[in-house]
Amino acid sequence: MCTLSIPVNIFTFSIAINCCCHSNRVDYAFSLLATTFKRGFLPDVVTYTTLIRGLLSQQKSQEARLFFANLIKFREIQPDVITFTTMIDGLCKTGHADMALWLFRSMEKCDCEPNTVTYNTIIDSLCKRGLPDDALNLHSEMMEKGILPDVRTYSPIIQVLCSLKRWEEVGLLLDQMIHDMKISPNVHTFTILVDAYSKSGKLDDAKHIIQIMNERGVYPDIVTYNTLIHAYCSQGQMDGALAMLNTIRSKKIMPTSYTYNILVNACCRELKLDIAMDLYRKMASNGLSPTVVTHNILLHGLCQLGKSMEALTFFYKIQGLGHKPNIVTYETLLGGLCKNHYVDKALSLFRTIECNGLIPESKTYNIIICGCLRSKKYDGACKLVDKMVDCGFSSDAATTSVLRHLLLSKAQDPTLVALYQKCLH
């Protein structure tokens, strides 16, 4: 456009700057800002707000704060409520909540009145910091000023009050929200309540919330159902959890990998491995790919039942299908193999960890060292301790305890004494 002498103005530049910021190229955006000055254009508050948002989206909060401060200092713009709210939101999200609150209180000095979104941003930050009373005070303040709250004002306060089991206040706030302010809770608000009741063992209350949702025409989503399934599983009610999975399907809601992971984990915990494997196979028929978490849960379940060799076979099978293990996968298998006296298999597996692009951690070493000690492979344990120490790790309480126990029965064994001294060091 510029080369062809097609007229451009500050709005054209602002659109291009916005595109650069959304493409995570804030450096290009600032180059365009410089070009606006060269062409004699004067950037407006929208242009500068866009640049601030771009800096914050790339976690450049320090640069955003400095840029914002200089804009005010040199009176380049008169910040509006959107500019302030953008800056406050960025500060809250990057862990500078106190500074965000200070900026919030500074708005009046700049003749800028906070709006509902500004208050919601600060209230949400206070709730995430576990300060419900401060959030409630701010909620009262906005009401006194005639700034109407919305569902996003109430949801974080309800969530933090639920986490603190302040049920009476939750009830009062919901009553005010629904009856006084005529604000209908959305699916997120209801899910907060389902989650809170579930975690407190109030499963009947959680189910009642689902019933209320349906009556009000606010239909539960997969997050809500996942929360309820988790509650059933936590209370050992596998039939209820599996029935909930069927309910999800009947409502044409697609379960996620997380849904199946909750169920598979609960089945393994209840030692119902056949059901767990059946659920694992059903994931594929629902178009879902098992995650590394799914595989780790199943491997742990097999090891818990003493089927460590089946677990090893399953491990090689999923590897052959292109699923990549993580260090937890290896630690699960190593623990299972050592526990079931397949230490040579565990040592062989341990040697393949780095070949798969992973680095053993302190826990990994301690698992295999404990296995070697319990199987009287003291020389192997000694070499592993040397390697562990070279990597900057140390023995944990389990390894030290096994060594102490062995020393009590074999106090004169020089290898064990040397090993114990190395571990203590």
UniProtKB/TrEMBL annotation:
Sorted UniProt keywords: Repeat
The protein's name: Pentatricopeptide repeat protein
PPR repeat copies, ranges: 9-43, 44-79, 80-114, 115-149, 186-220, 221-255, 256-290, 291-325, 326-360, 361-395
Organism: Heracleum sosnowskyi
Entry-linked PANTHER family: PENTATRICOPEPTIDE REPEAT-CONTAINING PROTEIN 3, MITOCHONDRIAL (PTHR47941)
InterPro entries from the UniProt entry: PPR_rpt, TPR-like_helical_dom_sf
Family: Belongs to the PPR family. P subfamily.
